[in-house]
Design brief:
The chain has 429 residues and is an alpha/beta fold. It has 2 domains: 186 residues, Alpha-Beta Complex (Aspartate Aminotransferase, domain 1); 233 residues, Aspartate Aminotransferase, domain 2, CATH 3.40.640. The protein is built from 13 helices and 15 strands. A 6-stranded mixed sheet has the order 4-11-10-9-6-5, with helices on both faces. Strands 1-2-3-14 form a 4-stranded mixed sheet. Bound molecules: pyridoxal-5'-phosphate (PLP). Pyridoxal-5'-phosphate binds next to helix 5.
Length: 429
């Protein structure tokens, strides 16, 4: 009988043995950054990869080992690495002057594209998805004159808005009432109980980082109905999910929230965030009003993001490209789930379209609670085994396909996962 700890130890030793330069750079990094890390999600044991270069769908580490990049920068890297049209747009932006400390046409053009595509009356730009959500929540509080917000237990909206197992100690100090994802009646009751104090309900229409769990149409319908009835601002965090349909996941669901937030790929791979929606709420930020709310940000309209984002959204991630990419992701997820069924292992691929999350779990997964007790060591083992096959994804099982990933790449992924199953089968049944 195989032992999980022994298998993981052996995999970690093999990982370390093949990466002396990565290990040395990790030790060097740890002299100047806590744990050698400046972005928590990138840490993996025994030490994380350090990439030296990337091209197309391939990344190469400092030890010279190459991998198919299936992580896709946690959904921001939809264009793959060094897409020629992105490079051209970035060079054109650089040639025209970086950041003017003034308005320019680039921000108007990107705002026109984003509002039309994602059905917003008005939009404002930020530098990250975290900021976009912070501003959307602040806008909701000022608009309603109420203090509390309702995120979902297990939701993620940025480094200061992290609600797994309660709330992160570094969260912004909002007064929170935790909703229960996909629990229609419990959450309806909570909204009713706190209605007078509740400014906003915020959720992802599919939990991305939270495990690829989709909100049920009944849950979304209840939230829309209750928030509308009670004057609460409904915010969809579409930082990740907007890539799943040409108009974002809300368009696919046919439900319009009051505000939406965007991030990741929309800026063409540059730092990006945006919040927007109903004109009466967004008008709070209109500086021609004597009571306007401030919304600062030195790089909010930076010329690189504005110009490259516009090219990316109009010429590359077109509605047709979006549909094709998501169809490829659906095919890959189906093939993975077929494998899991065929081998009768406790594994499941969740998500929608081009976002796939593999869980070491069987059965229904409708809320973050359903995956709470899954074995982290099995995720680590899958991660290390796939790395050994030259495939890079997130340790938590998350993949986001880029436009550079081909059907042949998907075949390779299926073969590698099948290899993992046959090698580790005793641990997975
Ligand atoms: N919201 C969601 C759903 C996310 O997945 C993320 C990042 O992963 C964020 C917000 C935060 O975006 P950023 O990392 O750009 O601050």
């Amino acid at each position: 009988m195989q032992d999980i700890d022994a298998a993981l130890n052996a995999a970690q030793l093999a990982f370390t043995g093949k990466r002396p330069k990565t290990k040395a750079m990790h030790d060097r990094a740890a002299q100047v950054m806590p744990g050698g890390n400046t972005r928590t999600v990138l840490f993996t044991a025994p030490f994380p990869l350090r990439v030296a270069s990337a091209q197309g769908s391939t990344i190469t580490d400092v030890d010279g080992l190459s991998y198919l990049d299936l992580l896709g920068e946690y959904s921001a890297g939809i264009y793959g690495h060094s897409h020629p049209r992105i490079l051209e747009a970035a060079r054109a932006a650089l040639d025209n002057g970086l950041n003017y400390g003034a308005h320019h046409e680039g921000e108007v053009k990107l705002a026109e594209v984003v509002t039309k595509r994602f059905n917003m009356d008005l939009v404002r730009f930020t530098n990250s998805g975290t900021e976009a959500n912070m501003m959307a929540l602040a806008a909701a509080r000022c608009f309603t004159g109420r203090k509390k917000i309702m995120p979902m237990d297990g939701g993620y909206h940025g480094g200061t808005l992290y609600f797994s197992h309660g709330a992160s100690p570094v969260n912004a100090p909002f007064d929170c009432v935790m909703g229960q994802y996909n629990d229609v009646e419990a959450t309806r009751k909570l909204i009713a109980a706190h209605a007078d104090d509740l400014a906003a309900v915020i959720l992802e229409p599919m939990l991305g980082g939270g495990g690829g769990i989709s909100a049920s149409p009944a849950f979304i319908a209840m939230l829309r109905e209750e928030t509308k009835k009670r004057g609460i601002v409904l915010i969809f965090d579409e930082v990740m999910t907007s890539r799943l349909h040409p108009g974002g996941l809300s368009a696919k669901l046919g439900v319009e929230p009051d505000l939406k937030t965007l991030g990741k790929y929309v800026g063409g791979g540059m730092s990006f965030g945006a919040f927007g929606g109903r004109s009466d709420i967004m008008a709070l930020f209109d500086p021609t009003s004597p009571t306007a709310l401030p919304h600062a940000g030195t790089f909010n309209n930076n010329t690189l993001t504005m110009n490259v984002g516009h090219v990316a959204m109009t010429e590359i991630y077109t509605p047709e490209a979006c549909a094709a990419l998501n169809a490829r992701g659906d095919r890959l997820r189906d093939r993975l789930n077929d494998l899991f069924m065929r081998y009768q292992v406790k594994m499941k691929a969740m998500g929608q379209g081009s976002m796939i999350v593999i869980h070491p779990a069987a059965g229904e997964i409708n809320s973050p609670h359903d995956i709470e007790d899954t074995d982290k060591r099995l995720r680590q083992l899958l991660f290390l085994d796939l790395l050994d096959e030259g495939i890079y994804m997130a340790e938590r099982g998350f993949m986001a396909l880029s436009l550079m990933v081909t059907d042949a790449d998907c075949d390779r992924v299926v073969r590698a996962v099948e290899g993992y199953i046959t090698r580790r089968r005793e641990l997975l049944v």
